[in-house]
Amino acid sequence: VRTAQVFREKSGINVLTGHRVERIDANGGAVTGLGPEANAFAIPFDRLLIATGAAPIVPTRSGYDRPEVVVVKTLEDTHTIKTRLHSGAVTKAVIIGMGYIAMEMAEALRARQIDVALVKPRAELLPWMDAELAATVRRELESHQVQVHTGFDAVRIEGQGGRAAVCDPGGTSLPADLVIVAVGIAPNSALAAEAGLTLGPAGSIAVDPRLRTSHPAIYAAGDCADAFHVVSGQRVWIPLALRANRAGWAVADHICGKPVALQGVAGTAVFKVFDLQVARTGLTAAEATRAGFTPAAVTISAPSRAHSYPGGTPIQVHLVGDRRSGRLLGAQMVGREGAAHRINAPAVALHAAMTVEQFSQTDLAYAPPFGPTWDPLLVAANQLVKKMKEES
Amino acid sequence: VRTAQVFREKSGINVLTGHRVERIDANGGAVTGLGPEANAFAIPFDRLLIATGAAPIVPTRSGYDRPEVVVVKTLEDTHTIKTRLHSGAVTKAVIIGMGYIAMEMAEALRARQIDVALVKPRAELLPWMDAELAATVRRELESHQVQVHTGFDAVRIEGQGGRAAVCDPGGTSLPADLVIVAVGIAPNSALAAEAGLTLGPAGSIAVDPRLRTSHPAIYAAGDCADAFHVVSGQRVWIPLALRANRAGWAVADHICGKPVALQGVAGTAVFKVFDLQVARTGLTAAEATRAGFTPAAVTISAPSRAHSYPGGTPIQVHLVGDRRSGRLLGAQMVGREGAAHRINAPAVALHAAMTVEQFSQTDLAYAPPFGPTWDPLLVAANQLVKKMKEES
Questions:
Q1: Contact, B29 vs B155, CB < 8 A?
Q2: Contacts by A58-63 with C-beta closer than 8 Å and gap 24+?
Q3: Alpha helix segments (H runs only) across chain B
Q4: ipTM higher than threshold 0.90
Q5: Contact indicator for B299, B306 with CB cutoff of 8 Å
Q6: Order of strands, edge to edge, in the sheet holding B163-167?
Q7: Record: contact B363-A279, CB cut-off 8 A
Q8: Which residues contact B4 (CB under 8 A, 6 or more apart)?
Q9: Is there a contact between B272 and A344 if contact means CB atoms under 8 Å apart?
Q10: Residue in B with minimal Cα distance to A247
Q11: Among A53, A155, B30, B190, fewest CB within 10 Å belongs to which?
Q12: Residue B350, φ and ψ in degrees, nearest 5
């Protein structure tokens, strides 16, 4: 999306494309590797930033290398998909995975009238999501004729009459002109690991709030690095764009002598599935238990607009709190309107370590076109306060 | 909207309609007044809740009692307006006032193809709003053919050829088949004042966080009562539905022996003007100065969706912070999408007394359909942090 020349001319940054770093010599202060004509290079550094990102996981299973199979990784992959679609040869697609990338691909393919099936081995559509909210997402997919095959482990991909067939161990197979693999991503941390840097969750590169790795001269930022969770205080790997971007700036500031420490992440995320907005922040009840909290949770449904105002649709809110401290731990929302941006209110509350009771008293906006007098988040918070009191 | 009978039968609440309280005997513990047949009544109390609300201000000016003039106060007033509209006799309307009630009425009348003019004496459309944001609201009104006459003091209303004419002192007059007066509201606090209760700002009834007036047995809640502002700590009168509702519940809890103390209000408000969402929370720069802060402010414009996602429109954000403490003091937003619910994030930050820097580090949601990687609020917060550092 931007050439090396632009970086050079506009910002005085020497971007060396085609240079593959093969080794970080942390104590020697240099990176070494191979250049465009297989020429060895060695570049010394005072400070090094590792920003190697993450890459899609490609299962090493039979047939995943067939020509019908595409992993959504680079701009080129999307061009490959587009070319296939434009050729008219694609009428059926199978997407392996059910994360938000998988769902966004499903939506994009349905917009082109292609039959779409989503498959994954686990029983839950979105395992981190409250079951009632996840059921709404499933209905949304199915109402747009997306086949949702949970409990389908795509152990191999075969060829069958000029088409691919995605097979589970039980002998069921789904025909496909196009197979998209979107089963998650993994941090590109091999170089860091080989250099002896400490790794964090999921093999990400462990960094402190100043984005420093375990070596004082080396920073890591972006999808390759971990972060502290503002609720649990624990290291987490939640590779999302805002944190990646923020961490990049913070490293630059830090190297240039501005002391910057990042607060950490709340794990706030949002995505669109057809006409639904799906949002989360903080911990799920299961994550809260693992982090040592004693969670209580409620799930409510409230209208997106005042009763008197036409066009309202339900918003579902799932809220998690800690019985012992009273703290708000997490929130999830699903709705046709008003879910995406509403999630930012509990996200800020998590940064402030608010209790559910404190959050329940916040002065949220009300006007009939935009919500009921008691915002759905407040309805949920009031119920959670009650539940936590009754059961504690 | 609900009869006295329903209250009696469903909740065991004895609702006495047609009973006008004329005096509160605070120390005697009774209210006295006149019943439906002008019969005197006296009702003793252990605890009294004053929930007399607020009423629209009707200027005592010449011609404001003409038959063309309606004050939007009761359900009946709206029926009166509807009947007039249905009679087809209304082709031109003048609305006196430019608050959100005035704007909502303007929108409702334009939807019925009626010519609408808004008038007010002051020069600013929305005096509390940053000038850039207010200009966007004015453009929105004008692009829907609403005439905006700021600096027009409607000193009298005359009759003129079977129509009303709204006149300013300079001799300009605007013809109207319908004149709507929406110049603001005032708390109904006369009874409380006569009973010797302490009054707060704008003649509202002063209450503590437990909604107790200056008399220990008497509470006040709703649009007649004041509140503490979470940013300034000062008493304010911001009559809005959520606080009114919340205060009512809190009084009931308190009287029933549950200790409840309300946090106060952030002054969060939102309204719709045609296709625009207009939102605010906390203090304006002027209010901040009056409250003893040393405010700095920025105004930015950012797209409502990611660059790559079609259909984005600008969101304007105005953010106010305190130079001395670094605290976030207030926010204002105007946009076609995503402004109404986004305002809740800074509202929560105000409750938590966050600094602008802390707010700038919050993990807000990002997905291309719903915003850029850096949420417009974060773009504004980053700029405000910079500005506060440079100038302090």
A1: no
A2: A58/A181, A59/A154, A59/A181, A59/A183, A61/A154, A61/A155, A61/A156, A61/A157, A62/A155, A62/A156, A62/A157, A62/A158, A63/A156, A63/A157, A63/A158, A63/A159, A63/A164
A3: 4-6, 75-87, 100-110, 131-143, 190-194, 241-255, 285-290, 344-351, 356-360, 376-391
A4: yes
A5: no
A6: B156-160, B163-167, B173-176
A7: no
A8: B15, B16, B17
A9: no
A10: B361
A11: B190
A12: -65, -40
* 3-class DSSP assignment, residue B198: coil
* Total count of residues recorded for chain A: 392
Strand-pair partners of A322: A295
Choose among A268, A272, A369: nearest Cβ to B363.
A268
How many other β-carbons are positioned within 10 Å of the β-carbon of residue A151?
Answer: 12
> What does the DSSP assignment read for B301-339?
EEESS-TTSTT--EEEEEEEEETTT-BEEEEEEEESSSS
Smallest Cα distance from B280 to chain A, Å:
8
With CA atoms as reference, the chain B residue closest to A274 would be B369
